Amino acid sequence: MKMIEAKNVKKYFPLKKSILSRNDRYLKALDGISLEIEKGVIHSLVGETGSGKTTFGRIVMALTPPTSGTVKVDGIDLFSLKKNEMKLIRKRIQIIFQDPYSSLNPKLKIRASITEPLKLNHVKFDEKMVTDVVESVGLKPASDYLDRFPGEMSGGQRQRAAIARAFAISPELIIADEPVSMVDVSIRADFLNLLRETNKRENLTVLLITHDLFVASYISDKISVLYLGKIVEEGSKEDIIERPLHPYTQALLDSIPILGMGEREVKIKGEIPNPIDLPSGCRFHPRCPFSEDKCRQIEPEYREIKRGHFVACHLY
Questions:
Q1: What is d(CA 213, CA 252) in angstroms, rounded to the nearest whole number?
Q2: How large is the average pLDDT for residues 300-310?
Q3: Structure confidence at residue 16 as a pLDDT band (50, 70, 90)
Q4: Nearest to 201 by CA among 252, 133, 108
Q5: Is 2-15+24-92+171-312 CATH 3.40.50.720?
Q6: Which end of the chain is more exposed for a tag (fewer CB within 10 A), N or C?
């Protein structure tokens, strides 16, 4: 069963016309993404800043409408729903934001931050339920944290509280947008282990959005690699980590610091191009060490190289 089905999703943001510009111009955040995520799976969407991964997460949350394409959650077309129907589907989806300093209301105590969405969604709860969910994310004893304001807690404690708020409503789908990028390295594994444990225990589906392929490899079942609004490679964790095909995926892997490793094998040049003026042909060719004339002229086909392992590259 599929939890997420996205077909040819595009999101173009129109830009203001300048005196010198005669034609309409767009920032192409997503340029034709098709992605399926099975129920109970942790699926990572990996890419650099500017790749479009957060935009995709916002579309799945129905916070941003796509320019074109369809997105279904558990078979329901999100953008065909009425307002009251959307409220019901949002109850089944929760998001964990990147920044624990801004995702919690500084004027609400942790108890109120957790119980407010329960009240809004008419979910019955008692003190034991609130205590249990807070302690399940490592804030023990709960009595030490429930009556604190976010400003009285460390960054790691705030992020745990944000995760508790997401878990409290018993969602079927969690969108985790860079959930560990702003917490101390020493406690990142705790958060990832918590996501994995909840995934196994509750059959929870997780869309993990991250720029860090190491983080994705730690807990994911499947990984999709996104570059300038296009998925360039997708496969199981083993395929992507042990048998990467696309030069961009290889470069992301080679950028992970590993003690004792020598010179990186794949080097990419420069920064990610401007999504307003996309390169012709393969959009990775200006940075690719293997680019040829064909790469500059023809966009590569997205193909299945072996069962479940897809890539968009002229090398294959």
A1: 7
A2: 94
A3: confident
A4: 133
A5: no
A6: N
Q: What is the spatial distance between Cα 32 and Cα 184, in angstroms, rounded to a whole number?
A: 35
At 135, list the tokens.
């302690």
Residue with tokens 């129920």: 39
Confidence at residue 260, expressed as pLDDT on a 0 to 100 scale:
42
**Worst-scoring range by mean pLDDT, 33-37, 219-223, 266-270?**
266-270
Instruction: Report, as an integer, the average pLDDT of 219-229.
Output: 96
Residue 133's alpha-carbon distances to 96, 163, 164, 262, in angstroms, are 15, 9, 6, 45
Q: At what angle do helices 110-120 and 127-136 cross, to 10 degrees?
A: 120
Q: Which two tokens stand for residue 227?
A: 């570059």
The token pair at 167 is: 């878990």
155-168 vs 127-136: helix crossing angle, rounded to 10: 130
Q: Measure the N-to-C terminal CA separation of the chain; round to a whole number of Å.
A: 30
Q: Any idea where the domains of the chain sit in the sequence? A: 2-15+24-92+171-312, 105-169
